Amino acid sequence: MINQHHTVKIATLNCRGLKKTDNPKKRQQFIRYLRTLGYDILVLQETHATDNTIIDILDKQFNTKSSLWTQHCGIISLSSDYSLEHISEDIDGGRYILASLHLTRGLEHSPTTPPI
Questions:
Q1: What is the value of pTM for the model shown?
Q2: Does residue 86 carry a pLDDT above 60?
Q3: Which one of 24, 73, 95, 101 has the largest count of C-beta atoms within 10 Å of its C-beta?
C-alpha cells in the first residue's frame, strides 16, 4: 500500500459583510484577489449570506467547487481536489458550520471518499 500525503492550503477570513451590494465591483475584485492566493479551502466569517440569491452570486464569483453557507459564515472549496460534506450547524442561525473535507482527486470512480 502506498501512503500518499496531501497538503491542503486553508485560510480563514472575517470579511465583514461580503455580500455588501452597494459596491458589487469592489466585492468582485476582492473575491478575484482571494482566488489568486492559491488556497484550497476558504473559511469565511461575517458573510451575511442570508438567502440563496446571495449564495449563488458568491458561489459564481468564487467559482466554488463545493460550498457550505449559513447567514453568518461559509466554507468553500476552490479546488476540484476537495469536496465538503455538511455535518451540522448551530447557534443563532448558523454561527458555526461543522463539515468534513474529502479528497476527490484520483477517487472519481470510488464509491466512497474518506474524510481527510
A1: 0.80
A2: yes
A3: 73
